[in-house]
Structure to design on (303 residues):
């Protein structure tokens, strides 16, 4: 039966298939062509009475929805000699089904297992040799830029697991608070699991303080906007609260920001804008929220 660690790591690839491309390019040095990245069926069985399933299969498709590359992802926690027989079959079966090039990416958290998986697989036919592309957890780079963490949260979590560093965790873990459940808690648990007890406790205190602060501030401004809107309309009150909230965080705002808020029509949507501002870490991210609203304003007919 697959271990819990195996299933969690596989789920990271299934949750965000781009992770496979990131590991190939940033760790293994294998270029991956651009296109739409999505999961594909992982059943690689043929017309025989044996079932073969890869951990995950990812297909990259062009603008015509034609597969241009497929990636078979196998998470290996332990040495499994049977895989040296089935991996070539996986590649051949998927290549025949999708009619495109296929890569085998083996990911392992353990160096001895990664070393085993890297060994070339001789198939007997002259020149027919499979050399799996293997990424070991310890090879992952440190992801210390919050923007990069938000862009590739799974890669950032794996980076913390690889380096077991509290300072790195202090950058990555707060960004996990905005991930949807259940993955938010899964990712945080993975980060906690690799830290010493004292570091785990310090990180949890940091996250609790940050979460409570953001939640309290957001609730206060939403309540303020609703109260101010009793006479002028709740939506208008929330718009005023958004501007006050943003000014409290970064100071003077361009006049265009007030105009941009008029593309947000409902009370619920305006409350979401306040919540988004509450998650912003700096002035750049505050301006990014309003820039997205301005882009919507430009796309509105008659503006």
């Amino acid at each position: 039966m697959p271990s819990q660690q195996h299933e969690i790591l596989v789920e990271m690839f299934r949750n965000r298939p781009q992770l496979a491309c990131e590991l190939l390019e940033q760790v293994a040095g294998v270029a991956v062509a651009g296109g739409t990245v999505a999961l594909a069926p992982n059943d690689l069985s043929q017309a025989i009475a044996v079932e073969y399933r890869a951990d995950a299969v990812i297909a990259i498709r062009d603008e015509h929805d034609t597969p241009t590359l497929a990636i078979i992802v196998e998470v290996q926690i332990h040495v499994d000699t049977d895989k040296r027989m089935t991996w070539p079959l996986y590649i051949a079966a998927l290549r025949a089904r999708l009619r495109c090039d296929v890569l085998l990416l083996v990911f392992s958290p353990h160096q001895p297992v990664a070393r085993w998986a890297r060994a070339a697989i001789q198939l007997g036919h002259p020149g027919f040799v499979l050399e799996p592309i293997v990424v070991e957890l310890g090879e992952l780079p440190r992801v210390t830029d919050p923007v990069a963490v938000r862009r590739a949260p799974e890669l950032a979590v794996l980076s913390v697991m690889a380096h077991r560093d509290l300072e790195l965790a202090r950058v990555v873990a707060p960004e996990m608070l905005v991930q949807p459940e259940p993955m938010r808690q899964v990712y945080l648990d993975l980060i906690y699991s690799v830290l010493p007890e004292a570091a785990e406790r310090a990180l949890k205190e940091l996250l609790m303080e940050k979460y409570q602060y953001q939640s309290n501030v957001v609730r206060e401004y939403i309540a303020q906007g609703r109260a101010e809107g009793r006479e002028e309309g709740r939506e208008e009150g929330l718009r005023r609260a958004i501007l006050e909230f943003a000014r409290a965080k970064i100071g003077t705002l361009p006049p265009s920001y007030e105009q941009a808020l008029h593309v947000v029509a409902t009370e619920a949507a305006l409350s979401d804008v306040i919540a988004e501002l509450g998650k912003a870490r700096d002035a750049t991210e505050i301006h990014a929220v309003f820039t997205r609203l301005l882009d919507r304003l430009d796309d509105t007919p008659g503006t």
In short: The first strand starts at residue 36 and ends at 40. The radius of gyration is 24 Å. Confidence is low (pLDDT under 50) at residues 46-50.
